[in-house]
Amino acid sequence: MKHKLRGLYAVTDAAERNHQKILRDAEAALRGGARIVQYRDKSGDAARREQTACTLLALTKRYDAILLINDDVQLAKQIEAHGVHLGQDDIPLAEARTLLGPDAIIGVSCYNRFEQAEQATQTGADYVAFGRFFPSRTKPGAAQAGLDLLARAQRELAIPVAAIGGITQDNARALIDAGADMVAVVEGLFGQADIEQAARNFVALFKP
To answer: Whole-prediction pTM value?
Structure first.
């Protein structure tokens, strides 16, 4: 599974609570070629989150894709998701690795700090994420990252790199050309009228 860390990385809208809509939209993204889905839900409804995560896991497996859980290592372990994505306020990477095992995919948000990405790499992260790169409605206050960060990561890090933050079909190519192995997209994918076609458009940007 770890060799699939490239391409369109679909991140569900944390504000969306409609179980059926999340699944319908995720499947449209997968039909369009998304390789990774991250389930992001900050609500306290544990039962609903587990139900949605379980169904998403079955869905991603059907499309030979990857399901990562945002922040919640316990949920990822409980449903046997492919892995987790960790932010700066989540449990340490080493602890997550102990809980999830050596085969789990663990990604780490590094914002605009290269030294944090170096540390994550040394600690055993499977990929790092930088961003935001463009104005973002999902995380408007996130730190600004530059294209030079992606270029440096490609030169100096031995693991894949994801870019996130305000990514659209119009600006994603600049990130890929700069060195992004994955583009993580929320609004630019799930906010579109035709999600499947939007996914196809993103996927096409990775082709030579």
So the answer is: 0.95
